[in-house]
Specification:
This protein is 45% helix and 18% strand. It is of the alpha/beta class. Helix 5 (142-151) packs parallel to helix 6 (164-172). The N and C termini lie far apart (79 Å).
């Protein structure tokens, strides 16, 4: 009898456990009824954030004001020594010209066409004025090269950017510029669109071009990324082509500006580099992005799944002579321009992905250089239209940052802050073994700028490194800010040497970062770059290896794009 009773009690307990389990599951399921997956994810992230934050001791440091610098941005001063950019072909004679060349043709492999041809030129015993001559080729991105030339920091004898837009900007700076040839090698920029999305857009709009793409973006039907128009040839080309579609008679008129604002409000992603943009596309975050055809045709991961649609002015690598050059140097540049047009070299270019789509005609006429600079300024002012940035800067002040790393971190923040838009809001925290709020998030007016400068100047290094504790605190500050103003776009900048030895780990907070989707840009100072990249890669942000001679320029570009 006792055995039967025991069995009965056990059965009853089992039934009760099942019932309670079902009720528990039911309560949890019904609590999420009517909610989107994103809502549930955000609620889970909010719970996790509260739990993680509760275990961190956060100090609040008194705010101090510093002396702000109202002088304009010193581009020349921020540029590193020109030796930072590699010479891919050295001159072989005393009589030579130095050529700045865009990176897609002066590198190695499929990107080394001009490198190969220049090496052949130097072997060919070309004579000018009875003396053997040669060329020296420096591999440097068109936008960066333009900064060197316009600022006067370093002016080569010749310049072959990807497209004529940069040549026009150099010309507008007042430097004497002579176009030697319109084309060294053929190339075109394009919008690369996922095949399924391309078919859908064709069904809706009947054609794919910049006009229909910008309309689709403005209507929130197409998610596209493009690159920094201050640094990228394709990004600059896309900017002016888009403005041209809104009003071809006046690129900077009210109609063009209003069209740009509507379109830009729905652009989810502006990349600092092409690599960053392609990584975002691989993650499925983008339906399309901009790219040169020569890069597209050589990218095995893009074949079959994407469609290339050309736009804007061609990228035919014009060649310019710069400054008041002696006739001998002008003759060398002319000889080189003639040399590269030989059939065998143009054929080798085609083998590397150039000289295709020669039937494509430019969608717009050449644009005056002063107008291009004004378009860049417009982009800077309007790119965050309707959705200002709220950013928290997270500064590593652990013992390993003592000395030069912390000095460079301070210098980069103090000089880089000139690129921060006034419509945005910023805050600053520092961390070592613990986390300190140095400046609560506030609108970046003159008062906030002064307190930011004061907070940066007060940073001192000591203690351990609790990087992920600091990121949790930054997340909490941003979520509190978004509760006040849901319209802001949150961003975190982590400036560190990448080593973490205290507090939470990346594994502890990775789900939190994914749940909120906040991009975390990292800047490494003598750093463990892989550790920083693992943080930035979670939400398709960039990671910069800011070594000591070019950190100011790199961080200025990063802030210019993201802020």
């Amino acid at each position: 009898m006792a055995k039967k009773k025991n069995k009965f009690y056990l059965s009853a307990l089992l039934i009760l456990a099942v019932v309670f389990g079902l009720v528990y599951v039911g309560v949890n399921l019904t609590s999420n009824l009517g909610k989107s997956k994103a809502q549930v994810t955000l609620e889970d992230a909010a719970k996790q954030l509260s739990k993680l934050y509760a275990n961190i001791e956060v100090k609040t440091e008194p705010t101090v004001k510093g002396q702000i610098d109202l002088n304009p941005i010193d581009v020349a001063g921020s540029l590193p020594d020109i030796s930072k950019f590699p010479v891919t072909v050295n001159n072989s004679t005393n009589q030579f010209v130095e050529i700045f060349s865009s990176t897609e043709k002066s590198g190695t492999g499929v990107d080394g066409w001009l490198t190969d041809v220049a090496a052949e030129f130097n072997k060919a015993n070309i004579m000018v004025g009875g003396k053997p001559v040669s060329v020296k080729v420096r591999n440097i991105a068109s936008g960066t090269a333009t900064d060197y030339i316009k600022s006067g920091k370093y002016v080569p004898d010749a310049f072959t950017p990807s497209n004529e837009l940069w040549g026009e900007m150099v010309k507008a700076s007042g430097l004497k510029v002579q176009k030697v040839t319109d084309r060294l090698v053929g190339n075109v920029p394009g919008i690369v669109i996922a095949k399924s999305k391309y078919d859908a857009l064709m069904g809706t709009y009947g054609a794919i071009n910049v006009k229909t793409v910008t309309e689709a973006i403005a209507d929130n039907e197409f998610s596209m990324g493009y690159t920094d128009p201050f640094a990228s040839s394709t990004g600059l080309n896309f900017l002016v082509t888009a403005l041209n579609t809104f009003d071809s008679s006046n690129l900077l008129g009210d109609k063009a500006v209003q069209g740009f604002e509507k379109f830009q409000a729905n652009v989810p992603f502006i990349a600092s580099t092409t690599i960053q943009m392609r990584d975002a596309a691989k993650s499925g975050a983008l339906d399309g992005f901009v790219l040169e055809y020569q890069t597209y045709v050589n990218a095995a991961d893009l074949k079959g799944g994407y469609v290339f649609t050309p736009f804007g002015v061609r990228h035919d690598s014009p060649l310019y002579a710069l400054g008041d050059l002696p006739q001998e140097k002008l003759d060398i540049i002319q000889k080189f321009a003639e040399f590269v047009t030989q059939e065998k070299y143009q054929k080798s270019a085609k083998d590397k992905g150039f000289n295709s789509l020669d039937d494509y005609k430019p969608e717009m006429a050449a644009v005056d250089g002063s107008l291009l600079s004004a378009a860049q300024k417009l982009w800077k002012e309007k790119k965050n239209v309707g959705k200002p940035i709220a950013a928290v800067f997270v500064a590593d002040v652990s013992g390993s940052m003592a000395g030069e790393p912390l000095n460079r971190l301070k210098e980069s923040l103090l000089k880089g802050q000139k690129y921060l838009g006034r419509e945005n809001s910023i805050g600053l925290i520092s961390y070592s073994s613990d986390v300190s709020v140095r400046l609560p998030i506030g609108k970046y007016d003159t008062n906030q700028q002064s307190m930011f400068v004061g907070a940066v100047n007060s940073l001192q290094a000591s203690g351990g490194t609790a990087t992920f504790d600091a990121i949790v605190v930054a997340m909490k500050m941003l979520q509190d800010k978004m509760a006040e103003d849901p319209n802001v776009k949150p961003i975190i900048f982590v400036l560190s040497d990448g080593e973490t030895n205290e507090g939470y780990s990346l594994k502890d907070i990775k789900g939190l970062i994914e749940g909120y989707g906040v991009p975390i840009y990292t800047v490494g100072y003598n750093a463990n770059i892989k550790a920083l990249q693992s943080i930035s890669s979670i939400n398709e942000a960039a990671s910069i290896n800011a070594d000591t001679d070019d950190v100011i320029y790199k961080i200025g570009n990063l802030f210019n794009v993201q802020m």
